[in-house]
């Protein structure tokens, strides 16, 4: 593997403002998962589902504050891989962390493209066979790749459009359902007893399990780190965008959770395949075309997730190449479009292979476990970096207790996730830790095969 400094190429363009990066983070977090997630969470916690979102928000916010700090300090496309290497000085660990983040993005892109075609098929009443579905999914990835290749400015404006559309669906549910607030006991849970009353069935483990489930709805803020190199004044705008996105997402999620159990009994939400659509239908019976509208919103939401993961993945490959962890050809930037076009093309090939293989769903189940491991590592890296007086500072510097607590929370969620996998009757959940472990092993093998040399331990700021 060549020296990362050998390849001379134009730099990425710094063209992302503070509000644009906030929409990037918000769009990456909102996604389409919340539309189905609320029902699963309600099945575990009943009307107290908001507690799961609150606990998940606390855990995510601690790590989010750490990411806001490192994003402002080190505006590098390598993201978590760069921070891990800079903090802990272990190229192998940095490589594994980078591959874990990339696999998370790749599986999200693959599942997202397939979900888009599935939604379009339902909306248009088509009957496509499996092979045609896969080819159409690859077509979606190709179109998204064309936007990424076109440039960061175009990608950001498309993200803002999609984010506004997907947020409008959630805001509509809140608007039509707010009149139902206060109509139920928000501590009622499935495990309540007659003697104990509402809230008697709520245990810390139950809330933690709900938090692990709803934690996925906050995942996305970490993607900001990989585009920080293209942000104007990153020391100020990265913390502003990341924290702002998390605050907005939390407000929306909490309001949606309260609205959902206020309008529809939690027992019905738990059994429903389209819980939020049921909420909207009951709260706004006058809206007759709600099904097609929410199907269209779902398409935009999933498409936005695919767009942002593609964008993140291309920058991650570019950044890891700059570190010397991946072949230097991946750090090439198009002289006109200012996009890492080789990395964009390589991602298209990998995702296409994943789609054709048909094993995407199994990989997707390991995403949360992998990212929790990444979050734990980044928090630990920040603790180490904060102890070095010569390290740069950002416009936002949380006390060292924040990354310490962030690491502890994420490590606790990993334990809960593993315990849930052991006791779960869901085959996909049971195999998720094994798949995550397999990805780590594959990363180690790739590292030995590619044999990265001249790895940059501290790239100039």
From TrEMBL:
GO molecular function: transmembrane transporter activity
Localization: Cell membrane
Pfam families noted in UniProt: AA_permease_2
Transmembrane parts of this sequence: 21-38, 50-71, 92-112, 132-149, 156-178, 198-219, 240-266, 286-311, 342-360, 366-385, 397-419, 431-450
Topology in the lipid bilayer: Multi-pass membrane protein
Keywords for this protein: Cell membrane, Membrane, Transmembrane, Transmembrane helix
Predominant subcellular localization, coarse grouping: membrane
GO cellular component: plasma membrane
Protein name: Amino acid permease
């Amino acid at each position: 593997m060549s020296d990362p400094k050998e390849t001379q190429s134009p730099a990425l363009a710094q063209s992302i403002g503070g509000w644009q990066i906030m929409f990037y983070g918000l769009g990456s977090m909102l996604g389409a998962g919340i539309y189905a997630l609320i029902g699963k969470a309600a099945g575990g916690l009943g009307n107290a589902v908001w507690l799961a979102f609150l606990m998940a928000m606390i855990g995510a916010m601690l790590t989010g504050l750490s990411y806001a700090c490192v994003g402002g300090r080190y505006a590098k496309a390598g993201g978590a891989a760069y921070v891990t290497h800079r903090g802990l000085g272990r190229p192998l660990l940095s490589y594994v962390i980078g591959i874990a983040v990339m696999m998370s993005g790749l599986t999200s892109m693959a599942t997202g493209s397939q979900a888009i075609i599935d939604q379009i098929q339902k909306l248009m009443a088509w009957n496509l066979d499996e092979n045609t579905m896969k080819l159409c999914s690859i077509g979606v990835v190709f179109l998204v790749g064309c936007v990424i290749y076109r440039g960061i400015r175009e990608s950001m404006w498309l993200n803002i459009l999609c984010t506004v559309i997907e947020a409008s669906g959630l805001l509509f549910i809140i608007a039509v359902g707010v009149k139902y607030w206060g109509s139920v006991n928000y501590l009622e849970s499935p495990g309540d007893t007659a003697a104990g009353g509402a809230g008697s069935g709520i245990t810390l483990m139950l809330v933690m399990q709900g938090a692990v489930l709803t934690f996925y709805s906050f995942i996305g803020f970490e993607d900001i780190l990989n585009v920080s190199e293209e942000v104007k004044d990153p020391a100020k705008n990265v913390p502003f965008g990341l924290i702002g996105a998390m605050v907005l997402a939390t407000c929306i999620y909490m309001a949606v959770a309260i609205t959902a159990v206020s309008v529809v009994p939690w027992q019905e939400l738990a059994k429903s395949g389209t819980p939020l659509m049921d909420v909207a239908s009951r709260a706004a019976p006058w809206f007759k075309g709600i099904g097609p509208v929410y199907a269209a919103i779902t398409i935009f939401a999933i498409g936005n997730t695919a767009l942002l993961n593609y964008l993140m993945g291309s920058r991650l490959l570019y950044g890891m190449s700059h570190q010397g962890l991946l072949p230097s050809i991946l750090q090439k930037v198009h002289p006109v479009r200012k996009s890492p076009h080789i990395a964009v093309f390589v991602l298209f090939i990998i995702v296409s292979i994943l789609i054709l293989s048909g094993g995407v769903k199994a990989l997707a189940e390991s995403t949360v476990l992998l990212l929790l491991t990444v979050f734990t590592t980044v928090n630990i890296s920040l603790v180490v970096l904060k102890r070095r007086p010569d390290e740069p500072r950002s416009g936002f510097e949380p006390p060292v207790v924040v990354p310490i607590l962030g690491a502890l929370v994420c490590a606790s969620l990993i334990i809960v996730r593993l315990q849930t996998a052991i006791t779960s009757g869901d085959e996909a959940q049971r195999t998720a830790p094994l798949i995550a472990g397999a990805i780590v092993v594959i990363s180690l093998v790739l590292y030995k095969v590619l044999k990265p040399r001249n790895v940059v331990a501290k790239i100039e700021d």
